[in-house]
Specification:
This protein has about 475 residues and is mainly α. It has one domain. Helices cover about 70% and strands about 0% of the residues. The chain starts with a helix and ends with a helix.
Length: about 475
């Protein structure tokens, strides 16, 4: 029954789901209409807000691109290939592939959602080696596995609440920091981790499509774009001159590359000694770069690996500014704050986590960035919670704010299953040289969305911190 239902949703998405760029354009128009008719914002104000936000995600977009290509380049190294070859001795059925990919992806993304690139590479390589893997369904498994990031070490909202002199404290919305023991280390969050790390692989295992509907990776490869190429080592060797030269010696110098990589590793050790487990985007990119230098050994091999890794990132480069423009409309016209205020106005001491969760999920369609979204709706939700908790002990109000903030984060993360913004992080690797679009994937995620929506709502309402 679940399988048949999943197939129906997949068919609907194939029929109606546009490309991720078209999705961004439609959301832009919806945001414009909302600001114009609801807030009476002038057309000039809306266009100015759109432009003002248009480039707000440039740094984030470049970080995402670097995460993808540096992570992918590591995966192209001989060491990783040998590791995946070893793994496939024990993973030899499609069901095992789906289960393993979701579980490993969930565990990796607890460290950082940027580590989804490792899951992408593993999944793609397993699909090449194991017969009968439905590739669009496997891509859906990878995308679902990213959902755990909001529970882990790089979850932006809990980390913000625990940051000294954060903008909420500076604005007087919060009186003090909220420690991570109230958020990431809470019973609620630990229970959510168990739900996703164990429950998500089991659910996707139950949703495996019928054998007759399988589209294997080989069936989807674009033969005009994809062809077997030389190994990176072979290509580097082919670029050498037919006579001895200093340029070739430098291009293929292991010593030169290892000196630079050793310098980088020294800084990485210093970073974690002095700053603790600070896994921000920049240090992750730096780690991926240094590991890639070590694994590929010579400058020329690394250049070739990065060139191959960079071949399919155009979607991020030109689409992220459009999503940032939507964020600008929501932020600078006050549309996002207005939505949060309306949802918060219905909340009571029993129901406020539900409305915070719904606000996080709904606004995420227009602002697909947890930190950016929280900056827009967080203050309104927190002020509403403080009003609801007036007269209660300060520690209890602090606990309520932590629960509401977690609820926003959970809702924001789960609603990504309905919108393709972060699928742009997966597709450069999973769809490289393959005829695959968002509409081929998203339908498989509707049942997981509904199941985890129900379970997460019950958990944010009833499980104690």
């Amino acid at each position: 029954m679940l399988t048949r239902l999943g197939e129906k949703f997949t068919h609907l998405f194939l029929k109606f789901m546009p490309d991720a760029f078209v999705f961004a354009l439609v959301l832009t128009i919806i945001a414009v209409l909302g600001a114009f008719f609801w807030l009476d914002a002038t057309p000039l104000k809306i266009v100015e807000s759109w432009y003002e936000g248009f480039f707000d995600l440039l740094e984030f977009g470049m970080q995402i691109v670097l995460i993808i290509i540096t992570g992918f380049s590591i995966a192209l190294s001989p060491v990783i290939k040998k590791g995946i070859d070893w793994l496939t001795r024990y993973i030899n059925t499609p069901g095992q592939v789906y289960f393993l990919v979701v579980m490993i992806g969930m565990l990796l993304c607890l460290v950082s959602f940027g580590w989804i690139v490792i899951t992408c590479v593993l999944a793609r390589e397993l699909a090449m080696r194991v017969k009968g893997v439905n590739y669009p369904f496997l891509v859906a498994c990878v995308y679902l596995s990213m959902n755990s990031w909001v529970l882990g070490l790089s979850s932006s909202i809990p980390l913000l609440l625990n940051t000294e002199k954060n903008y909420l404290i500076e604005a007087g919305v919060l009186n003090t920091m909220i420690p991570t023991s109230y958020t990431l280390g809470s019973m609620l969050n630990l229970s959510m981790i168990i739900l996703l790390v164990i429950g998500a692989p089991l659910l996707m295992y139950l949703l495996i499509p019928k054998k007759g509907d399988i589209k294997e990776i080989n069936d989807l490869m674009d033969n005009q774009q994809f062809e077997k190429s030389n190994t990176i080592k072979e290509e580097a060797a082919s670029l050498k001159l037919p006579f001895k030269s200093w340029s070739d010696i430098l291009n293929n110098s292991i010593v030169l590359q290892y000196i630079i990589a050793t310098m980088g590793m020294a800084y990485i050790i210093y970073h974690f000694i002095t700053k603790g487990l600070d896994l921000n985007f920049n240090i992750m990119i730096f780690i991926f770069l240094m590991i890639g230098l070590f694994l590929h050994k010579t400058p020329m091999r690394y250049v070739i690996a990065m060139k191959r890794s960079s071949s399919n990132v155009s979607g991020i480069l030109f689409q992220y500014p459009f999503y940032a423009g939507i964020m600008g409309i929501m932020l600078y016209t006050g549309l996002g704050e207005k939505l949060a205020q309306i949802l918060a106005s219905f909340a009571t001491v029993e129901s406020y986590p539900f409305y915070a969760y719904m606000a996080g999920g709904f606004v995420n369609f227009a602002i697909p960035s947890a930190g950016g979204e929280f900056a827009v709706i967080g203050p309104s939700i927190i002020e509403a919670v403080k009003a609801i908790g007036a007269g209660l002990p300060e520690a209890e109000v602090e606990s309520m704010i932590a629960r509401a903030s977690l609820s926003i984060a959970y809702g924001e993360s789960l609603s990504n299953l309905m919108q393709p913004f972060y699928l742009l992080l997966v597709m450069p690797i999973m769809a490289s040289g393959i005829k695959l679009q968002a509409r081929d994937v998203m339908g498989y995620l509707i049942i997981p969305l509904v199941v985890f929506f129900i379970l997460q709502i019950l958990m944010v309402l009833w499980i104690p911190l």
